[in-house]
Amino acid sequence: MEWTYTVRNVLVGSSLLGLTGGVLGCFALLRRQSLLSDALAHAALPGVCVAFLLTGSKSPEVLLAGAMVAGILGAFAILGVIRNSRIKEDAAIGIILSVFFGIGIVLLTWIQKLPSGNQSGLDRFLFGQAATMGTDDIRLLSAVTLLVLFAVVLFFKEFKLVSFDHGFGVSLGLPVKLLEFGLTSLLVLVVVIGLQMVGVVLMVATLLTPAAAARQWTDRLGAMLLVSGGIGAVSGSVGSLASATIPRVPTGPAIVLVSSVILVFSLMLAPRRGMVWAMLQDRLVERRIRRENLLKDLYLAGERGIGFGSWVTLPILMGYRGLSGSGLLRSARRLVKNSLLERSGDQLRLTADGIREAAKVVRKHRLWESYLSRRLELPPDHLHRDAEMMEHALSDEVVDDLDRRLGYPERDPHGKPIPREAS
């Protein structure tokens, strides 16, 4: 790869577009206006065609000005349909997207058939052509980036409020409609600037993919903006370099592919939200529930008259829940390690610490049954199944509060004693 003038321009332009698109894409994602970005990108196409027909110029400034006007008109058309009809937002966006894009394709075909309508320079707005970027384009993109970042920093609290709680913003007296118009205008501006790089078809991915990836890593808007902007900039840089290195790989699709790889990685491995993390958490919770159930079953066996510290054989425990002996032994292994159980061959028994832990589980179960019976007035035969699920989700603090609200009952609705050891 040669470090040519074009490669430098594409690298800088792609990075700036990725940074700006990633930041604004967060607000579009959080406001549930993902399809709006797509509609604005498609709505810009007829503006490009009309600007060419009126001026006969293929100057980027003229064509982008037409795209900007068409994008704003598309946004107003969407708002008009939503406010003045019974059509919902998603349907309105889909309608405007289809109508504007259809007009754009018709105009583009007409221009191609005109004697003076050499289409060269217009088709790049469909699929992007980053190699056509010059120094003036970089200056324009730099100015747009500075404007967007300045606006986001200056109105961060207001944009945040509009994105999360529109009604609360109205109640505070904020100019919510003006703020929403400002956000939409910035989005239109970035969409229009990015058209010649990634095109109408891929512009929405440039905006939303970094934001969706960043959302997996954080719950804070400020951090999400930084992460999304970083992902967008990295995707733009790596995508443009890949396009320059690998023959016949267009820049726009390469950028989208890189950001898509980051999104897939985030969906799979991000802490707390990643699919792998979720599967691991589910397995950990499942194992914890099995261990708590084993403690409870041993406690209940002790309640039946054999004593809490007595040995209980695996066949008896297997009959309680229909579990296999190997499954019970896997659950018991961790409990033995934590000194909650003792094992002798195919027999298990609770230690003193194990009795206390088992009593906590039984206490949660019976207090929740008492709550369902007294407050919700459920019949006794409807209590056990719900309590089986809730006993593993209730924290000790919640159980203590539940006990207090119920007046510290001594027995559950079935007449069984509620353990007080955990009180």
Draw up the topology in text.
Blueprint: H1 5-30, H2 34-55, H3 60-84, H4 89-113, H5 124-127, H6 135-154, H7 156-164, H8 166-171, H9 176-215, H10 221-245, H11 251-269, H12 275-306, E1 312-313, H13 314-321, H14 325-337, E2 341-344, E3 347-350, H15 352-374, H16 384-390, H17 396-405
Antiparallel strand pairs: 1-3, 2-3
Helix pairs in contact: 1-6, 1-9, 1-10, 2-3, 2-4, 2-9, 3-4, 3-9, 6-9, 9-10, 9-11, 10-11, 12-14, 12-15, 15-16, 15-17
CATH superfamily of the largest domain: ABC transporter involved in vitamin B12 uptake, BtuC
What's the number of helices?
A: 17
- Spatial ordering of strands, largest sheet: 1-3-2
Largest sheet: 3 strands, antiparallel
Strand content: under 5%
Give the total of beta strands. Answer: 3
In percent, how helical is the residue content?
over 70%
The ordered H/E elements are: HHHHHHHHHHHHEHHEEHHH
CATH class of the largest domain: Mainly Alpha
Question: How would you portray this structure in words?
Answer:
The protein folds into 2 domains: 5-270, ABC transporter involved in vitamin B12 uptake, BtuC (Orthogonal Bundle); 277-350, Arc Repressor Mutant, subunit A. 74% of the residues lie in helices and 2% in strands. It has 17 helices and 3 strands. It has helices at residues 5-30, 34-55, 60-84, 89-113, 124-127, 135-154, 156-164, 166-171, 176-215, 221-245, 251-269, 275-306, 314-321, 325-337, 352-374, 384-390, 396-405, and strands spanning 312-313, 341-344, 347-350. Strands 1-3-2 form a 3-stranded antiparallel β-sheet. β2 (341-344) and β3 (347-350) form a beta hairpin. The protein is elongated. It starts with a helix and ends in an 18-residue tail after the last helix.
